[in-house]
Amino acid sequence: MDAEKKIMAMMVLAEDQQKAAQSTLDELAKQVGDIERRATAAVRHEVRETMQSVEAQTIAAFKDHGDAIKGAVNGAHGAVTAIQESIKGVSWKLALVAFLAAFGAIAAFAMGAYGLVFWQSYQVHDLASEKAALVQEVARLEAAAADFAKRAGKANLSTCGGRLCIEVDVTAKNWGKNSEFAIIKGY
Predict the structure, then answer these.
(1) Cβ partners under 8 Å of residue 40, min gap 6
(2) Separation of first and last alpha carbons in the chain
(3) How far apart (Å, rounded) are the C-alpha atoms in residues 164 and 59?
(4) Residue 168: left if φ>0, alpha if ψ -120 to 50, beta else—which one?
(5) SS3 113
(6) Domain ranges across the chain
(7) Longest C-alpha distance within the chain, in Å?
């Protein structure tokens, strides 16, 4: 085979390798996009479910405590009526105790509602932090893919035993503490 045919064969091989590398990069970009879509959907789903759960718990708490307060207020009104009917025998201390009981019930309800809102706020903040970390990871993967495309676009990628492998220059010196790095063929 003369030199021109060899050069043509090498050019065809190089074009095939370029196409294979581009196909791999396109697949990687598609996978990164898929990861981002799934992560965003998962975060949205989790936030939506958490918000619905907290809403139901808050409504139930308000209803339970509202009924208790209403009962306490009704009881206080009954006590006031009884006090007014027997004002000579009852001191002002009984009215104060009824007021303090109603105030305590209202305070307990307010603290419970505040606790629920604070807990939900913490959960939303935690999910937002998790989403930010996932967005950063996607950006890092995209940058790595772009860097690979820029620096190793001519690399001959293949599949070896079901795993991704790359052709290396066997005549070049290996590098690293344990010779774990090799030079890519053609670079």
Answers:
(1) 131
(2) 26
(3) 55
(4) beta
(5) helix
(6) 3-154, 155-187
(7) 127
DSSP string, 53-86: HHHHHHHHHHHHHHHHHHHHHHHHHHHHHHHHHT
Cα–Cα dist 32/138, whole Å? 7
Q: How confident is the model over 3-52, as pLDDT tens digits?
A: 788 888 888 888 888 888 788 878 877 877 887 877 777 778 877 787 77
Cα–Cα distance list, 38 to 41, 42, 119, 130, 138 (Å): 5, 6, 26, 13, 11
Are β-strands 163-166 and 157-160 bridged in parallel, bridged antiparallel, or unpaired? antiparallel
- Tens of pLDDT, residue by residue over 70-127, are 776 677 777 777 766 766 555 666 677 888 888 888 988 888 888 888 888 888 888 8
